[in-house]
């Protein structure tokens, strides 16, 4: 029994607890598509999951004891050694439900519905547990490796953050670097997607050089903006006088940062950076 990432990396050694459960409850010759998750109470703990993937052999047992992993099955790709990827999703799902009928934790079957009202209820309620949104698939679709035949509907929220720096020249900024108060200090919590030319010019009208010592350095590493980036190179910041801006962000947090790039919406010069509040969900992350 083995666990592989979507990129084909063998993750088996990081999840011995899942391998034991899978070997006990899944018959030979089955291939599942799913996801390993770690729960902290009633919320997904993405940080704990990532710590598994960088843990040393000596440190792994403590992480397993502290935060056991679970496996959520999405799809069934092979049964008794027979490749069923060409079968429509509804048939694969029926076989998966039969296979999972006697499962016990930490194995779980992902919920599914054809009822739009039910899907909307999930969309409104499940983000409190740290779920980003819903995945929509066609019942008649086959499984095509490497081809995305589904789409994800993510829940997004409007958040006011401090623009403490930009990437690119001040008169034509390319990205904003967002900050929020963490443990009493203005910390970098992410960056935006690339600004359009119109948005960059709009924002530039409100940008000014810092009037007092700035809490951020002029050069940071890429991992500060994206802790999971493989690029360890430097990133030059154009420091600016802190300015409040509105962004649109999905609900996925990682530690004290946005997990994904945010979208710039508009400047909020009427708000004071001194009054910014760390969103409760980010604080909980």
Describe this structure in words.
This protein has 285 residues and is α+β, with helices and mostly antiparallel strands. The protein folds into two domains: 12-154, 2-Layer Sandwich (D-amino Acid Aminotransferase, Chain A, domain 1); 156-284, Nucleic acid-binding proteins (OB fold (Dihydrolipoamide Acetyltransferase, E2P), Beta Barrel). It has helices at 16-25, 46-53, 60-66, 89-99, 116-125, 197-204, 222-225, 280-284; strands spanning 31-40, 43-44, 69-79, 82-83, 107-109, 133-136, 151-154, 156-167, 175-182, 185-191, 219-221, 234-236, 238-250, 253-254, 257-258, 263-267. The strands form five sheets. Strands 1, 2, 3, 4 and 5 form a five-stranded mixed β-sheet that branches.
Secondary structure layout plus pairing:
Layout: H1 16-25, E1 31-40, E2 43-44, H2 46-53, H3 60-66, E3 69-79, E4 82-83, H4 89-99, E5 107-109, H5 116-125, E6 133-136, E7 151-154, E8 156-167, E9 175-182, E10 185-191, H6 197-204, E11 219-221, H7 222-225, E12 234-236, E13 238-250, E14 253-254, E15 257-258, E16 263-267, H8 280-284
Parallel strand pairs: 3-5
Antiparallel strand pairs: 1-2, 1-3, 3-4, 6-7, 8-9, 8-13, 9-10, 11-12, 13-16, 14-15
What labels would you give this structure?
single chain, 285 residues, alpha+beta, D-amino Acid Aminotransferase, Chain A, domain 1, OB fold (Dihydrolipoamide Acetyltransferase, E2P), 2 domains, five-stranded mixed beta sheet, five-stranded antiparallel beta sheet, 16 strands
